[in-house]
Amino acid sequence: VSPALDQSTPDDLWKIFQDLPPSSLIIFIDREYHLQKTLVDKLQQKNHRIVWIKLLSTESLEAKSNVQMIDFSKSITSADVIKQYLIAELTLKLCLNTISTAAHVLKGKVYQNIMIDVRVSNIKLFYRAIDIIKLLTGADKQTAEKCLVQSIYQTNDEINTQTIEQHITAVANNKDHVVPIALLMCLSNYSYTQAKLQIDKCPRIRDICTGNN
Hints:
There is one protein chain. This protein is mainly alpha-helical. It has two domains: 10-106; 112-210, Helicase, Ruva Protein, domain 3. Helix content is 52%, strand content 9%. The two termini are 36 Å apart. InterPro entries: MURQ/GCKR (IPR040190), SIS_dom_sf (IPR046348). Pfam families: GKRP-like_C.
């Protein structure tokens, strides 16, 4: 849970949710829906869509409620309380994975079942990013790595003196779209500056790969 949301009152949450764009989708999990009923009513007045994922809760929706309920409670049939919680946790994990994957697809961050906008936070993901660039552009390893490193350091110059660990440390500085920019550099033979400008104009990364940018 985000520090901003942990142990917050409905009024605290409402202040945070007021900044949401119109018609946002807000998901409540299990008992939290009824615990936050006042907040739900306020959110619906702002035309936000509410979904309730029901796992172990025995409560039901009001007869005229327009909240969409995803009810897994009938599938959790074990009499063993510990097993109930284990099944509920696994079910919730799979459900949230599906939601987050769908969100990435809708934002254009996925192309051909590949998560393109990878945050290069360790050595494994550094080489994963290089493989993604190679796969989608046909570039060789040297070219893919050169573009990735230039994107990491936000420069048009070649970087040959730093280690991979130093590259990763540089990425950790909250840089966005490192891999997509490197991808566009390889696809279009752009400099870092040109690719960054193009990404700023076309934030849907999938469109870059399909040529719809």
